[in-house]
Input
Amino acid sequence: MSKNVLQRMNWPNTTFLVATLLLAVTLVPWYLWTHDLDVFQILMFVFFYFATGMSITLGYHRLFSHLSFKTKSPVRWFTVFMGAGAFEGSVLEWSADHRRHHKHVDTDGDPYDIGKGFFHAHVGWLLFAPTEETPMDNVEDLKKSKLLMFQHRHYVPIAFAMGFGLPTLMGAAWGHFSGAGVGSSALASLLVSGILRVVVVQHFTFFINSLCHMVGKRPYSTDNTARDSAIMALFTYGEGYHNYHHQFQHDYRNAIKPWGYDPTKWAIWALDKVGMASGLRRVSDEKILQAEIREQQKRFDAQLEAKGYSLPDSMLESLHASQDRLSQAMKEWTVKKEQYQLAMEKKIETSRHQIDELKKEAQEASRHVQEMFEEWKNAHFYAQAQMA
Ligand SMILES: [Zn+2]
Ligand SMILES: [Zn+2]
Output
């Protein structure tokens, strides 16, 4: 006999998600309306918002699920314990689900398949998550870590201690030293940095599975639903550049343009600078540009086909010419970049002056590629306008 809705519900998950949400929209606003928050409480909310949320994006996601960089143990300890306070499961469970999401994106094997709708991808998959253990055959590498196994075995007490216990204790200590009162300060911290913060962090990180597969553009791949959106990045600690992320999942960056908001990337970069992280993985600029060109070409061809339009010879010629110039520029760029890299790695005999020259040439070649790419885009834009 098939189970009814109530029997299929995952009650521990549902109780937690519904209770914290209800408290966050009833008790918390009432408290904020009737009490004043001091600066300490606001700073603590900000701290827990970033510490637990970015332990998910930097730790659970980019470090453990995708191995996009290496770290020293303090970073692993911090993200494992603080990440537990976001109440999104152990690193092992989270990574197992997430690796399946990437491997089977948009199909039944994807735990948060957006094809089943916004609600399912956002939170429905948790409300109806099977109560038996998540299959974890795809995280054998992570199971070798004693720290991750410890967190997995004692997940619930660690999550409550870090997510609710720690802010309450810090609030109580502040109440004692500032004279604001131990009890009232502890309660304010529990409500604001505990409950309200958990709800905000959860739904913001859940957006990565829901809205980041719905809102935005797909410049790097239309093979899946993941999308790039600068607005979503603001709510997801930089994970809104999700189309890029699905195409190049091992890159430690999600925003590759300097103006893209990606605090998770900035934090990894800063950890590298102070010697706490290493081996940051980056996809080469050539590969990224190639993906962009492929997608634009695909869109253009699809439009031509949909309209049953054949371009005049003169326009075809100019499109081919811009294509050739772009390919040539990319070839030159690749050669110059390789020469510069070899010189930097001292694999060829080079003086300081020659290295500077090679660097200049590589930069010049890169600028030339950008120019040719713009020209190529304009040629296509013009052809598209003609078709309209
Ligand atoms: Zn995704
Ligand atoms: Zn991912």
Summary: The longest helix spans residues 352-387. The chain has two domains: 5-278, 285-387. Strands lie at 70-71, 277-278. The pocket of zinc ion (ligand 2) is lined by residues 61, 65-66, 98, 102, 245, 249 (CB under 6 Å).
